[in-house]
Amino acid sequence: MSFLPPPRPTWSYHTALFLVLLVAAPASGQRTVLAVGAHAGDVELTSGALLVKQRQLGDRVVILHLTLGEGGNPRLAPERYAAQKRREATEAGEVIGAEIVFGPFHDGELPDDDATRRYVADVIRQVKPTYVITHWKESIHKDHAATSRIVSDAVLLASLEGVHTEHPPHRGVRGVWYAENWEDAVGFQPYISVDVTDAMGRWREAVTRYEFVRGGIADFRYLEYYEALSVVRGAVARKGRAEAFDIDASGKRRVLDGLP
Asked: Cα 21 to the chain's mean position, in Å?
């Protein structure tokens, strides 16, 4: 994923200051994007259009669902809904063109501990991602916040020689991006905008594999919300549709010898 220098501003001063636009042009070699969600459906909704776009550009896409989100259907026992969510996640992954990894954890009970960090670190070592996408660090859902902490630490653990797992260290992660999620809104700032206009059709095909997105399980209008959000982010980015991401504050530092 390559950053292009900003053109001479043709829009407002404040937009030029705060908008960073990612142009997802083909790179010289294939990249690998690992998206890690607390529950099946999380990353498809929030970053699925980017995943579709990068797959169309020839990149490898892997989705790790730490839990299935099997507790989210009040009309089905968790065991039955888990089987349904696994089918839906598999079908959504096929539409995106992503490889799917299912974690061993349970909805609402994601352990925020060293063992879980080592599990994710070993997935990182096996997948060897160039970029990692996950939840923002503050959320109204405990699994989302835990996932963010776990992934951030796991990227470090995966790079260390002294941390022993089944696979050798991987130091090739260029960045961790945090996807925009209505449940993870506190403190989130849309720092990076990605033009996903041409990926929205396949994104919709992927996310509507999930019953909770189509409606009928929860009263939150997931599909309408994320479609509308893509229009809002696209308007700000001067694109048709866009997805927005934040990064750690340390990644926003720039050192210059003078005015750019």
From this structure: 17
Backbone φ, ψ for residue 52 (5° rounding): -60, -50
Least Cα distance to 177 among 133, 142, 208, 218 occurs for: 133
Please state the pTM of the whole predicted model: 0.89
Contact 39, 81 (CB under 8 A): no
CA distances from 139 to 32, 89, 145, 248 (A): 27, 23, 5, 16
Summarize pLDDT for 174-228 with one digit per residue, the tens: 999 999 999 999 999 999 999 999 999 999 999 999 999 999 898 999 999 999 9
Cα torsion 235, 236, 239, 241: sign? negative
What does the CA dihedral 136, 114, 66, 219 come to, rounded to 10 degrees?
-50
> Which value, to the nearest 10 degrees, does the dihedral of the CA atoms of residues 158, 147, 253, 170 take?
10
Query: For the purposes of burial, counting CB atoms within 10 Å of the CB of 172, is it exposed (0-12), middle (13-18) or buried (19 or more)?
Result: middle
Query: Nearest-CA neighbor of 230 among 4, 45, 5, 17?
Result: 45
- Tell me if 244 sits within 8 A of 132, measured CB to CB: no
Q: SS3 of 70, please?
A: coil
H or E stretch at 61: strand 60-67
Show me where the domains of the chain are located.
32-248
In angstroms, the first-to-last Cα distance of the chain is 21
CA distance 184 to 23: 25
- Classify domain 32-248 at the CATH superfamily level: LmbE-like (3.40.50.10320)
